[in-house]
Predict the 3D structure of the following.
Amino acid sequence: MAWALTPLTEEQRSIQAVAREFAASELAPFTDEWDRGAYFDPAIIGKLGELGFLGMMIPEAYDGLGVDTLTYLVALEEIATVDASIAVTLSVHNSLPTQMLLRWGTEAQKERFLKPMARGELLGAFALSEPDAGSDAASLTTQAIRDGGDWILNGTKAWVSSGTKGEVILAMARTDSPEDRRGARGISAFIVTPDLPGFSVGKKEDKMGLRASPTVQLHFSDMRVPGDRLLGQVGSGFIYAMQSLDNGRLGIAAQAVGIAEAALRHAAAYAAERKQFGKPIKEFQAIQFKLADMASRVAASRALLHAAATAKDRGEHITQFSSMAKLLASETAMWVTTQAVQIFGGYGYVKDYPVERLFRDAKVTEIYEGTSEIQRIVIARELYSR
Ligand code: COS
């Protein structure tokens, strides 16, 4: 049912097929069990690493697969169609920490962190939000103070995906002083690893959806960070985080398209087999209209996402495009999964069929990596800034 609106090359189709086969054989048999048990299986990450899926957009010189953004997103959609939790783990790793290291890391940092991450030996995480700094990310209060050649960090990061398993965490902290606050320009990025003294994993969130992707708080208590763990320039961490989220939001859009595509497929199959009033419910126009609208919105979301991906690969400024793709895809995922539950009726409301999980998984795509409201702000601001 899914078709590529942007013609895919042979290489793109073959990586898409690898992702589809992996999802069918290695994820589909376990997705429901992992969801119910809120279980994250690290062995899956190892297997995805062997396929090169943990270094998709990292050049081969740094042990990555070196594919373009569209290839990465097409593969990510296939994974998300089966397991949205594994998809977000891949999305965060591929879009945020690895891209930050590639773009702003020193050669020594790339050697030590990026290469093993690209090989899938170290999993990456991204720590920007805090308990009191969500949409207003620049108001974060985790403080970094210089101590000789090191930095001492104190604070709590929140909503960190893969935080329990994250072995390389790109964390944003204030490097301005309380007497001289510089807003977004007073924030720097640090490469944090769990072995640093003063690092601890805090509360694990008990989430509505994406239950097989661990989300935690991280506590930094007089955490000593060596000077060579600063990423790029002092005071540029917020800009790095925002530029990285331009990429990250494409990954979340791909995840949302995958969730919506799965809900559409399940609903269409169910409508063909479920009989009421003497015939399959797909023969009722009420159901046909729903399915037609679902299919159209999924196709539109995928088309916009692919257009944004190719714009990125052409080197264009994609802040607005990326927010549009995320906004449309995430609201489509929520709407399409809601319709799918409705088509299933009572069976959609119980765990016997996957649409119940898809409905729960869809919701967070409207929230994380910037809420739909933040995407609308970004889109509207860009109308006047260029
Ligand atoms: N690319 C490059 N630079 C960017 C940027 C982007 N996409 N977005 C902002 N910047 C820059 C601005 O140009 C500005 O730079 P200067 O200091 O040179 O002027 C700086 O960053 C501060 O930007 P701005 O003034 O727009 O910051 P705001 O505090 O108004 O915040 C929003 C802007 C709301 C867009 C930002 O806080 C945001 O995206 N919030 C949501 C955070 C989020 O997605 N969190 C999820 C984390 S993962 S769960």
